[in-house]
Amino acid sequence: MTFHHPLVLAAAVLVTAAVTAGYVALQRRRGAALAAAGLGGPTGRGARRAALRRHLPYALLLAALPVLLVGLARPQAEMVVPRAAGTVVLAFDVSNSMSAEDVAPTRLAAAQSAAIGFVEEQPDSVDVAVLAFGEQALLTQEPTADHAAAVAAIKRLAASGGTALGQAILVALGTITGRPVSLPADGAAVTTEQLGYWPSATIVVFSDGQQTGGPDAVAAAELAAAAGVRIQTVGVGTVRGTTVEVDGYQLGTALDETLLTAVAQTTGGAHHPAGDEATLADTTRSLDLRLTTRTEPVELTAPFAGAALLLLTAGGLLGIRWQGRIV
Fold first, then answer.
1. What pLDDT, in 10s, does the model give residues 240-253?
2. Which of 32, 91, 180, 274: disulfide with 280, CB 3.0–4.6 Å?
3. What pTM, to 2 d.p., does this model score?
4. Are residues 196 and 315 in the same domain?
5. Is the same domain home to 114 and 262?
6. Which of the pair, 158 or 304, is modelled with greater confidence?
7. Which residue from 258, 268, 198 is spatially nearest to 232, judged by alpha carbons?
């Protein structure tokens, strides 16, 4: 514990000692005067009870004095405070299947609405990036604490093309690490020395999970896990599926929960199925971001002032009850 005004502590000791000594001297003179006048008080248990009633209110008032003075010294303590912080990359599937209407008004529109609500609830300590992926993956907003810019990037998304979920994960991972990331050749292992370790970063994927090409999504998720990055997947669509028109053709599309679950669990994240717009909004509110901690100075003046006020109140009330006046 530290103090903004340490000299007040010395004053607290001196003032408390002086007031206590004055009270003790006063009580001794009072006792001597009563004895000289031949006025004796009660004895035995009655004497102890009378002494308690006479001295306790003053003792409480005296105890409040050093507590109040310590509060005036503005004490501070260093406390470890948890907070949501780090980087969140929101990766949106913008393939043709995301124009399906089994989630109203469309899968993509519902994902955009839920994601905007998620971004608006984040503190300034969370940087948000926006990534769109179809047949390729494109970072449309660098990680930023300007959440209005992230919301604007989300609103610009439009559906077209196929789905390359694995490429989206690699681009998101490159955004976090600050270097291009690709799957290693010939099954070579990737070490944390190559990617770094980013435990405060999270990738949130909004997708129906129907991958049509690109790098293997689970292998890409293994790279993210090696870098300490967790992936949360939000399933947008229904398992029963629907049809969507592409270039005059009716194509069937349904939510692939198996792939999305495998991707999330590979990194220690979770898959969040969302079959309708309301559930999708609730899902984004329950996303588990990484919590970091930092040491912050916390001023303790208020607790000391509160304790002093409690002692003053107790002393005054006891004085009124036992002595008929505020001591």
1. 999 998 888 898 99
2. 274
3. 0.66
4. no
5. yes
6. 158
7. 268
